[in-house]
Amino acid sequence: MDLVPALEEPLKQSLKSVLGPATAKVMAEHLGLHTVGDLLHHYPRRYEERGQLTHLAELPMDEHVTVVAQVADARLHTFASSKAPRGKGQRLEVTITDGSGRLQLVFFGSGVHKPHKELLPGTRAMFAGKVSVFNRRLQLAHPAYELLKGDTEETVETWAGTLIPIYPATAKLESWKIGKALQTVLPSAQDAVDPLPDSLREGRGLVPLPEALLKIHRPHTKADIAAARDRLKWDEAFVLQVALARRRHTDAQLPAVARKPSPDGLLTAFDDRLPFTLTDGQVKVSREIFDDLATEHPMHRLLQGEVGSGKTMVALRAMLAVVDAGGQAAMLAPTEVLAQQHHRSITEMMGELAEGGMLGGAERATKVTLLTGSMGTAGRRQALLDLVTGEAGIVIGTHALIEDKVQFHDLGLVVVDEQHRFGVEQRDALRGKGKQPPHLLVMTATPIPRTVAMTVFGDLETSVLDQLPAGRSPIASHVVPAADKPHFLARAWERVREEVSNGHQAYVVCPRIGDEEDDPKKAGKKKSPEDEAEKRPPLAVLDIAAQLAAGPLQGLKVEVLHGRMHPDDKDAVMRRFAAGDTDVLVATTVIEVGVNVPNATAMVIMDADRFGVSQLHQLRGRVGRGSAPGLCLLVSEMPEASPARQRLTAVASTLDGFELSRIDLEQRREGDVLGQAQSGARTSLRVLSVIEDDEVIAEAREEATAVVAADPELEHLPGLRVALDALLDEEREQYLEKG
Questions:
Q1: CA nearest neighbour of 61 among 150, 130, 148, 160
Q2: Which of 62-71, 289-298, 299-308, 401-410 has the lowest mean pLDDT?
Q3: Is the pLDDT of residue 632 over 90?
Q4: What are phi and psi of 301, to 5 degrees?
Q5: Residue 164 DSSP code
Q6: Helix residue ranges, H only, 351-434
């Protein structure tokens, strides 16, 4: 079914008479608005009340603003300049006020005539422009403006409402021009097809869609805005959840081989060897996974857990269960360092059980094979042979696993580590290696609040590990303000020396490598204001390592690790560090995930403000993995009041990853999170907030599941099908298909 023709109409045609083709072009290029329907869903960011003027006292610098104010006075000055040497140059200075502050507007040259006639003292208008400073005073140079009183029919009509909508705008298109365009297309809102089933809408007391669109663009009261937003939030949550519910439904119809572990197989032998007992959480989550593996439909499960909660152990037990049942399991890791680390720790945990076909291997043993892009030809050939013959029950690898040449004997389970680093296409390619769709277990160590998981990973069932295994030690975290208190930094290096003298090891993490080709693309880019303020690039591994070895850590064994080293060199450095031969490892975030050295107890993160919250939490999780307490020092030169420092204080104040991910989201807007889930497409959420509207999302998921169970093809809900088509343009449709 096609979208309603009235809403499908391109803006080029519908706005021709009002704003001209140039405006339609700007809307398409800068705001992504192409049709009447797109424009109707471009909601106001906020509303100005006629009587209440924007606070001029709080204008942000260098931003494009829209203000409503009254002209206090206007003066025309003449001056001499190179263009007008005889003192014929003209400058109009207009002062506007809103009661809280005053702002100067300036117009030059021939641009003074119109405002000189129109902006008389007492006139009220909307002004839009970029805030700048001249002679230490804020000003708007050549602002666009729209008078708020006039006798023409159109102006009276346009500003008839008491609440003036302020739209997300651009320098090329002011808010009121978008408002005018909306006045033109608003009658088409009557043709909007309602995606919500009547029973749901009436049961929850939500207004119909045409009414919601009218109320959000032309509200008469604040209650109108609230009713419209409540309704539009439901649309966004419900349509997205229906898309995910349909995918869960489709997946549930696919066939898969049930994989039940044999009672006295590899898994039992492995469990008998364990020198510790599993946590209650690990036992519970393993049971959920084994139940899924025993069904004839593919498992789709997200396993999220705190850093160090033992996710790898749970994943390994699932892989052993599949091998017991005659299948193969593949673990996909995002980096070679991590793939090698997983291979090493899994073969160590399994001992003789990982020596299938070798002398000294246990009778029920299997082979654990590593496959990465940088392996030599002979090693690679042997690995490929192990996979196709079924000799290797477990394979661990990087993207190299996805290549066409790689074939499995019988792939039963795919484990994806650190999901957020893999494109959907890659996960999909690996799933395509099974004769029937394999079971899928996705792991992430970045804890995700429940509602975000429902929205981003809504097609996966979720298991959470929130207990740390016995013997894990607490990690103390502190912010080190290097600029305000340099002696704190000196003390940080003393603490590192103390840890080493007690027989432990330490990490020092830097944002850059420092061999000056870090990112050629960024070299010519304009720096952010924070960078400008600091006047220096982020600290680099190679520089810091040299300074430490010659200075505060002189006499200790200091090594470096970064992503551009040769894989064999990286592996050698990690082996020496794991064996305790190196005291201090100076590294980039290449150690962020999965690196497990229980003897490393201290971590110093340089320029910690350059990292995101979840990244800092991940990095910190590399210490405190043994019986000795961990220490994490966050070094920053940012001033105390800056948002960057507040972020670091938040990280230092809690070890709860779920709490930190909430803080992170509140600071970043959830568009970033959804961007990952929707293949980088602009987030489709306009009024729904993943964090604040958790109840709406949870309820929408329940309703969506029920609707899809009753009518998987949505035959009786044409309006919902229309909305789904609009949400899932081809790119996203493929994205969800591949999952």
A1: 130
A2: 62-71
A3: yes
A4: -130, 140
A5: E
A6: 377-389, 424-431
**In angstroms, what is the C-alpha Rg of the chain?**
31
Strand 630-636, strand 600-605: pairing: parallel
CA distance 23 to 541: 49
Q: Which residues pair with 395 in a beta bridge?
A: 330, 369
* C-alpha span between 353 and 364 (Å, rounded): 7
CA distances from 367 to 332, 357, 396, 417 (A): 17, 7, 11, 20
In angstroms, what CA-CA distances link 270 with 263, 265, 349, 354, 558? 12, 9, 8, 10, 37
The overall average pLDDT reported for the chain is 81
pLDDT tens by residue, 296-336:
999 989 898 876 778 889 999 999 999 999 999 999 888 88
Cβ–Cβ under 8 Å, residues 559 and 528: no
Encode pLDDT of 241-260 as tens digits: 898 888 888 888 888 899 99
**Maximum distance among all alpha carbons in the chain?**
102
Question: Two tokens at 74?
Answer: 């206007």
Task: Assign 3-class secondary structure to 221-271.
Answer: CHHHHHHHHHHHHHHHHHHHHHHHHHHHHHHHHCCCCCCCCCCCCHHHHHH
Residue that wins the pLDDT comparison between 434 and 227:
227
* CA–CA distance, 688 with 697 (Å, rounded to integer): 9
Q: Model confidence at 730, in pLDDT bands (50, 70, 90)? A: very low
Beta-bridge partners for 396:
331, 370
Q: Find out whether 294 and 260 touch, Cβ atoms under 8 Å.
A: yes
Give residue 737's Cα distance to chain centre. 21
Q: How far apart are CA 455 and CA 584, in angstroms?
A: 41
DSSP string, 4-48: PHHHHSBHHHHTTTTTHHHHHHHHHHHH---BHHHHHT---SEEE
Note whether 453 and 670 are within 8 A (CB).
Answer: no
- The Cα 712–Cα 245 span in angstroms is 9
Rounded-to-integer distance, Cα 133 and Cα 103, Å? 11
Strands 89-97, 64-79: pairing is: antiparallel
| Helix (H), strand (E), coil (C) string for 176-225 | HHHHHHHHHHHHHHHHCCCCCCHHHHHHCCCCCHHHHHHHHHCCCCHHHH
Pairing of strands 102-108, 137-141: parallel
DSSP character string of 497-512 = HHHHHTT-EEEEE-SB
Angstrom distance (rounded) from CA 636 to CA 653 = 16
- Cα separation of 278 and 227, whole Å? 50
Distance separating alpha carbons of residues 681 and 689, to the nearest angstrom: 17
Whole-angstrom CA distances from 592 to 402, 441, 480 are 23, 21, 20
Q: Across the strands, what pairs with 303?
A: 443, 463
The C-alpha angle with vertex 682 and arms to 676 and 687, in degrees rounded to 5, equals 105
CB contact at 8 A, 53 and 70: yes
Token representation of residue 610: 């350059």
Total residue count of the chain as it appears in this document: 739
Which has the closest alpha carbon to 314: 360, 270, 352, 256? 270
Cα–Cα nearest to 456, from 671, 613, 250:
671
- Does the pLDDT at position 454 exceed 80? no
Strand partners, 170: 173
Measured CA to CA, the distance from residue 647 to residue 663 in angstroms comes to 8
Question: In 10 A of CB 399, how many CB atoms?
Answer: 19
CB burial of 319-343 (b: ≥16 within 10 Å; e: otherwise) equals bbbbbbbebbbbbbbbbbbbbbbbb
CA distances for 313 relative to 126, 278, 726, angstroms: 62, 9, 42
Q: For residue 523, what are its two tokens?
A: 């070299």
User: What is the distance between the alpha carbons of residues 573 and 575, in angstroms, rounded to a whole number?
Assistant: 5
Dist. CA 369–CA 236, nearest whole Å = 45
Q: How far apart are CA 219 and CA 353, in angstroms?
A: 70
